[in-house]
Amino acid sequence: MDPMVTSSVEQTHAIGEQLGTLLRPGDVVALHGELGSGKTTLIQGIARGLGRNPETIKSPTFVLMREYPGEVPLVHIDGYRLEGAPTIAALDLELGCSPYKITVIEWAERFAGLLPEAYLRIEVAHVSTHRRRLAISGVGARGQELATELQTAAVSRRKTSV
Ligand SMILES: Nc1ncnc2c1ncn2[C@@H]1O[C@H](COP(=O)(O)OP(=O)(O)OP(=O)(O)O)[C@@H](O)[C@H]1O
Ligand SMILES: [Mg+2]
Question: pTM for the full model?
């Protein structure tokens, strides 16, 4: 699948928002990418797509997991501080990933081997100061379905905005 490239925070928010409208209870989104690549920014868009205020989404620097209540609770897990703490990682994921909630995970590589069998994977990378590359792939049936839906939605958005 071709990566998507965004040239502003707003464009990354728009992709997140689109994804937010596609997500259903039980879905998991695993985000990869270096510091400041745009993982939290993408989650702010997801929150907006789920009808939440994106400004409530902050990097949970000192907290591993935060839950934003709503019709479908949004669980935000950030593995940045997790190095060498697999027990806490496992516990956190178990608490976070629920069939009744939507779970988004920053630094998903810190949860290697603990992720569910199906999830959407997004790798965010710096291209330049304001440009980011988003490589989207799906793991498992539901992950692949989401990846295809997001790609299709992005293509039709591009067509209508020309
Ligand atoms: N196209 C873009 N998409 C997303 N963020 C962008 C873009 N261009 C510039 N930025 C800036 O990059 C930064 C992204 O920060 P963000 O907190 O989302 O990164 P992160 O991947 O969550 O980092 P961390 O690993 O520290 O949690 C913000 O300062 C944002 O303004
Ligand atoms: Mg972050």
Answer: 0.93
User: CA-CA distance, 79 to 9, in Å (whole number)?
Assistant: 22
Contacts of 4 (CB under 8 A, 6+ apart): 15, 133, 134, 136, 154
Residues 136-142, mean pLDDT to the nearest whole number: 98
- The whole-angstrom separation of Cα 149 and Cα 131 is 23
Domain range list for the chain: 24-39+60-128
> Is residue 58 lining ligand 1, measured as CB closer than 6 Å?
no
CATH entry 3.40.50.300 includes domain 24-39+60-128: yes
28-38 pLDDT per residue, tens: 999 999 999 99
Nearest CA to ligand 1 atom 26: 35
Q: Which mutation among 15, 37, 41 tests ligand 1's pocket best, with the greatest number of atoms within 8 A of CB?
A: 41
